[in-house]
Write a structure and sequence with these properties.
It is built from 2 helices and 16 strands. By secondary structure, the protein is mainly β. GO terms for molecular function: cytoskeletal motor activity.
C-alpha cells in the first residue's frame, strides 16, 4: 500500500497521514511507497521542488497536481508532474517515479486561451496559450482527472480574470506544437492486446491511441 502525507503550499509536511488514489489530491497530498520505517523518504524530494518553484514565482495554494505524460514536438512522451496554483501552471521534471526538479517559470492561467479535451475518458488535454506551442499531455496514473483539472482552471479564470475559460470537446482537432499546425485524432479502435496509451506522429497528423478496454464514453 502507498503511504501519503499532507503537504501545505510552503511544502511543509503535516502530521496527519491519509490514503488516496493519486500522489496528490486537491494539490495537497504527496504519496510515495511506504518504506521499512514510518518516514516517507520520498516526500522531501517533492517538498524541495515545490519550495524552489515558490521562490521563483510566489503562490499561496496548490489547487491541483498530478503525474502526466507530455507530448513534445519530436513526437515523444516524457513523464512530468504538473501543478496548478491560484495564478499559474507549473511543470516539474519527474526524474524517475519519485524524484522531481523544477523546470521553467510557471505559465499564467490567464494566458490559457483554449482547453481541448476529447469525449472519452482517455485523459488527453491540450492547452492553447496563443504562442503556437500548445501544451499537450495526458494523465497517466490514477484514472482520468480531466474534469477536475478543467474545473480548477475554469474556477480560477472566472474568479480572478475578466474572461471565461474556452473549453472544446472534440475527438479530432487542430493544435500547434513547435510553431507548426497539426491535427490530433483520437483512435478508439485498435489492437486489444495493447494496454498502454501512445502517440503516433506522421507529418502533420498525430494519432492518440488508447487501450480499448479503457476508452468508454462519458
Amino acid at each position: 500500500m502507498n503511504h501519503y502525507y499532507l503537504v501545505d503550499a510552503a511544502g511543509n509536511k503535516d502530521d496527519e497521514n491519509v490514503f488516496c488514489d493519486e500522489y496528490i489530491t486537491a494539490g495537497r497530498c504527496h504519496a510515495a511507497p511506504r518504506g521499512e520505517d514510518d518516514e516517507n523518504v520520498f516526500c522531501d524530494e517533492y517538498i524541495t521542488a515545490v519550495r524552489s518553484m515558490k521562490k521563483q514565482c510566489p503562490f499561496d495554494r496548490i489547487l491541483f497536481s498530478s503525474f502526466i505524460e507530455k507530448f513534445n514536438r519530436r513526437g515523444q512522451c516524457t513523464t512530468r508532474s504538473i501543478f496548478v496554483t491560484e495564478n499559474q501552471i507549473f511543470k516539474l521534471h519527474a526524474q524517475g517515479r519519485w524524484k522531481f526538479s523544477p523546470m521553467k517559470d510557471g505559465r499564467d492561467i490567464s494566458s490559457v486561451r483554449t482547453v481541448t479535451v476529447t469525449s472519452c475518458n482517455d485523459g488527453l488535454v491540450v492547452l492553447d496559450f496563443g504562442d503556437k506551442n500548445d501544451f499537450v499531455f495526458y494523465f497517466s496514473r490514477g484514472g482520468c482527472r480531466v474534469v477536475e483539472f478543467v474545473g480548477v482552471l475554469a474556477a480560477e479564470v472566472g474568479k480572478f480574470h475578466s474572461h471565461s475559460l474556452n473549453v472544446i470537446v472534440a475527438d479530432t482537432f487542430k493544435f500547434h506544437i513547435g510553431g507548426r499546425s497539426k491535427q490530433m485524432i483520437l483512435v478508439k479502435n485498435h489492437d486489444k492486446s495493447i494496454d498502454e496509451p501512445y502517440f503516433r506522429s506522421k507529418r502533420s497528423t498525430v494519432k492518440f491511441y488508447w487501450p480499448l478496454k479503457e476508452l468508454t464514453m462519458e
